[in-house]
Specification:
It contains eleven helices and twelve strands. It is α/β, with parallel strands linked by helices. The longest helix is centred in the middle third of the chain and has 28 residues. The protein is globular and about 60 Å long. The N and C termini lie far apart (about 55 Å).
Length: about 450
Amino acid sequence: VGLKILEAPLQRDPGWTMPPRRKRGAVQRSGEFHPGRSCVSLRGALLAGFGNGAVMVAAMSFSVATALSGASAALTNPGGYHPPNTPSSAWTTNAVLCYMDGRSLPSSPSYSETYNWTPDKFKKLYGFQSQQNVTLDYFFDSFLFLGYTWLDGKSFWPGQGTAPLNSTDWTQFLDLQVLAMEHLGTAASAVADELAVGVSSHSGCGAGSSHALPSVFLSVIAPDSRQNNFGPVVPGGPSLNFSNSADRLAAAKWSVDLAVKAASNGSLGVNLVGFYWFVEDVGPADAGLVTALCNYVHTQYKLRVIWIPYYDAPGGYDFEYWSGVLGFDAVFLQPNFAFHNSSYVDRFEAVNATASENYLGVELELPMYIRNPQLQDWMQSIKLYLEAGVHYGFMQNAVKAYYEGNDFVNMQLGNSTLYGIYRSIYAFAKGTYPNTNFPWAPA
């Protein structure tokens, strides 16, 4: 492959400063971010070349049955939301985020049943179920697997936790994702049987098609620059040091190779359609790595790479940056309304304008908690997200991601009020919201 990588920090405009790296839902900094300012010098530096140094990664000797037809084509910005059911999003219409990490492991002190993904739980997301657990219809067409915390106080967030993740942690997390794919495949087969329809392994038959296997995006863990003894990625090779940009890229490619090889097992019953870049902002330190990784995934496997930046992530909005420079295939904007002190009108007006100008999908943040003091509770938050989708058109016109599926399972298992919310999310995914199933009337 011989991709050149970034050896020196990129120069950025003197008027722009990087905000603190934040996790999803953290308190937002004051002021509004202007995406065009952040990416001008980044784009120029990247297009000028990555400097010296090349990393060769041996081509895998197997074919990937789940690969989409054709490498990712260069996108143009036609204006409007990034629509559902397009090749660039791997035919996704509704993608649900499923968290699995150290809390998923029964041997962990932090184990929680909420993070243990059984086939029965996946049935409630791939299929839509009654309160009596009867499968009535299909629900989410795509699944994004990601984590948050790991064992021994480690974190998936670079620079956080007790210590950086190493190669053993990465492979254990991949094992967890592969097991989840197997359980999702089992669930998909059961849902198809219960709905008395067949399934197809073709990943391009359209989102929501009754005969499509579930599509899966796996997470690429961001190499933590604190790690100076990651471990080897080739037999007899040196232990990688993530203070070296070449080693960071080698590790990211290695993880993609392992994931594709694991997913090439046709017995899993799902389609691996792409990868998710885990960190929610991409600044100068990571831009070269992300660009090279996206190029590798596209050329080597013809799969997609998606991203979900937080509301004011550096460059996250700007189409020329996320598509033309970084090389992502689809980007979902986080409104962060549930987590930030903002008004409904102000936030969703801005989300609508930004997403429409930059060909973005939208993430709906629908957990059973909030941090916005202007909301009375998490149920009101969910209602307002759904109503915004109807009012601003992203219910019908945008590819969508949903945070977080773990809570959706709990809603289906809950009382009639919780089940009503689960049913309303299903109606939204189908494009038929509003309905009469929400537990209380609009204000």
